[in-house]
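re: ur question from earlier - yeah i can do the single chain one, its not a big deal. heres the input i used so u can compare w yours
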Amino acid sequence: MSQRPVHTSSRLAEVRYEIRGTLSHRARDLEAEGRQIVRLNIGNPGAFGFEVPAHIREAVTRSLPRSEAYCQQQGLLQARQTIAYQQVARGSTTATAERVFIGNGVSELIDLSLRALLEPGDEVLVPAPDYPLWTAATILNGGRAVHYPCPASRGHLPDADEIAALITPRTRAIVLINPNNPTGANYPRELLRAIVALAERHRIVLMADEIYDGILYDEATFQPLAPLAGDLPCISFGGLSKVHRACGYRVGWFTVSGADARVQDMLRAFDLLAALRLCGNVPGQWAIQPALEGADTIRALTLPGGRLYESRKAVLDAVERSAFLDVVAPAGALYAFPGVHEDALPGLDDEAFALHLLESEDVLIVPGSSFNVAYRNHFRITLLPEAPVIADVFERIERALGRFAERARARHVA
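and the output i got, formated as tokens:
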């Protein structure tokens, strides 16, 4: 009998997710050998000792007896109303509970929304670097991800004219990740206005990944996209996993804004797809109202003296001391995206460096090219470890880069 392997979708050949990919698998092998790996590959607060705020956890516990049946496919009404109230308070004029969809994390809803929008060959404009799920979900739903650059030389911000040059008759959506993963960039109001004008001119849907909306440093302020979009169709994504440190609850949502006539078909498509997967995780939905209406528990962590602030400062201090590194100071989110000086280490291969760092220094990072950029001299780390751990990690990174530099000099001499 034939032992040929089962054929899988050709679309998977174009999909990358190195955040939990080959390097992470190798880290598991090393841990099985007894090595202590410092995992900086994923923004998972609970893995670094952060806890869900008590009032949120208690609300879920109290509501477990009410969580044993499917709920309406869009989510619990109370939770959807709370999300809509938040959007209205931020300036959205069209947010209602009927326009809110709750799912098993934002990840599920990114896939669902793109499935509703895309025909084969349709194009989605995605930032580079991006959170790679956006590119993957576009490909897996038959679309083509077209990346617009957000280089370090510009503070990792996009340029509206460069985005405009990429628009074709097949462009269906522009994705914005703000505050940004992986770079920590925070988009100013005027830049967002310029992108909204592009979308209006070309009748393109806006998709705003705002999962890090409350995680900001120094004087940064968050500008939601929906109020600027007005009547233009805009899908705004949020959730509990980052600001409220509740990744395991798997609670995300999106809100659809824009004029009724322009979004009604889209809303019907979202409702159909939501019904096909029955509903989102019910117990976690009881956490939404206390999270959004309760005390602000993230700000103390991002102010001077707060844990996230001090970890970010440890990154910036270490990079300032480094002979090899530069970084744009993250204005928001849970990551930094350092780059290696090309004159100090020309031709660096970020994947080879990440593997060497893991094997030699027990540190797991994510190569920058995993975020759909062509250059290979960056990497992403999470800011979730405590500051002393960050400082130690960057000493290990510096040692590893020093070894790479010595090898490069030796090859040059030879």
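The CA atoms of residues 90 and 257 lie 12 Å apart. not sure if urs matches, ping me
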